[in-house]
Design goal:
Blueprint lengths: L2 H28 L1 H8 L4 H12 L4 E6 L2 E6 L5 E3 L2 H9 L6 E2 L2 H7 L11 E2 L8 H6 L4 E4 L7 H7 L2 E3 L10 H15 L3 H24 L6 E10 L2 E7 L4 H8 L3 E2 L10 E4 L11 E6 L14 H4 L2 H4 L3 E3 L10 H11 L1
Parallel strand pairs: 3-4, 3-6, 4-5, 6-7, 8-10, 8-12, 12-13
Antiparallel strand pairs: 1-2, 8-9, 9-11
Helix pairs in contact: 2-3, 8-9, 8-10, 9-13, 10-13
Length: 340
């Protein structure tokens, strides 16, 4: 082989080596993002990315609630509800709880379109639930309200626990708070879409009933809404303020609350007949139990009561003892249906 041919081959080989080197460099550059997303287990960048992916796992949800945040994995199957409004929310989302607080009271005061299963266990009172009974049910989610705040640490030691927000002077609208808490429950149960559907159906129903009230010429009419009972044999009434979820429902129907307290009233003001004197021309909506009907018993012959306009003119509207004024969206719709 001639000397010139040797030189040509040497130059050609060097050129090939240079091109190969450039190709390798390009391959390394383009694969760097793959390493960060998990192709190279030894790279420190990958560990960071894995942790980010773990926190964004759709199967693990971080629920923000009154007492902090709670991580919930997957879809809970065994729910304990430590308040009647929570029970209602869970049922509205198509889930039967395994345990609730005060079953007897719930059945007496609350009636919504989804019935409670006869298999549900009682876990004590709504203020002081039985930790032993709750633990025995092996729940994978507990939902409560601020009434059991003192038990929160013990409850979350049993299962992930979410605590609903109360309405406050800063956020006084109990209806808006009811919707907020319902969305929290829906997220915790991995049923956000179902939750939005329920709220939309309730809004549509109330709007339709509002049209009915308007057509009946009752728009802007004044109302009083009370829950009545005996307290140490004394007739007692809880008069709902504008902030109450139940009063908000009647306001959404187009009516006006005749009860105008001087200061901030979170939900209701409790008392006797006297506050009603200034509202005697309003329509009177009431909830009372048949076995404790203060209107047909203690107040029947009371001269002050008998002289109120809504009593004399028969503008008293019973809504049933099992219409719960402090419930969730299903109770809100029921209140609207009965008021309209």
């Amino acid at each position: 082989m001639s000397r010139s041919m040797h030189c040509f081959l040497l130059v050609f080989c060097c050129a090939m080596l240079f091109i190969a080197g450039c190709g390798t460099a390009n391959t390394n550059t383009s694969s760097a993002p793959k390493a960060a997303s998990g192709t190279d287990a030894k790279k420190p960048e990958q560990a960071s990315t894995q942790e980010q992916g773990k926190s964004q796992d759709p199967a693990v949800r971080t629920i923000t609630h009154l007492l902090g945040t709670t991580e919930i994995k997957g879809t809970p199957q065994r729910i304990v509800a430590i308040e009647w409004s929570v029970v209602e929310d869970v049922l509205a989302l198509g889930v039967q709880p395994v345990g609730i607080a005060d079953i007897e009271g719930y059945k007496k005061w609350v009636k919504v379109k989804h019935e409670l299963s006869p298999d549900v266990k009682d876990v004590g009172s709504r203020v002081e639930p039985s930790l032993e009974q709750i633990s025995a049910l092996k729940p994978d989610l507990i939902i409560a309200t601020n009434r059991v705040e003192a038990f929160y640490d013990k409850l979350k030691a049993i299962a992930p626990t979410v605590v609903f927000y109360p309405n406050t002077e800063k956020e006084p609208d109990a209806y808006a708070m009811m919707e907020k808490n319902f969305r929290i429950a829906a997220d915790a149960l991995n049923k956000k879409d179902e939750g939005e559907k329920v709220l939309k159906e309730v809004d549509t129903a109330i709007a339709g009933l509002g049209d009915k009230v308007k057509k009946a010429g009752k728009a802007d009419s004044e109302f009083i809404l009370v829950q009545a009972f005996s307290l140490k044999k004394t007739p007692t009434m809880r008069i709902m303020s504008d902030n109450a979820m139940s009063a908000k429902v009647l306001i959404k129907l187009g009516m006006k609350n005749a009860f105008k307290p001087k200061g901030y009233v979170p939900t209701f003001e409790e008392g006797g007949i006297e506050p009603l004197l200034a509202m005697k021309k309003a329509n009177f909506f009431y909830i009372v139990q048949d076995d404790d009907n203060i209107f047909t018993n203690q107040l029947k012959e009371n001269p002050v009561w008998k002289n109120l306009d809504f009593v004399k003119e028969n503008r008293m509207y019973a809504m049933g003892g099992d219409t719960w004024l402090f419930g969730g969206p299903l109770s809100a719709q029921l209140i609207a249906e009965k008021a309209a």
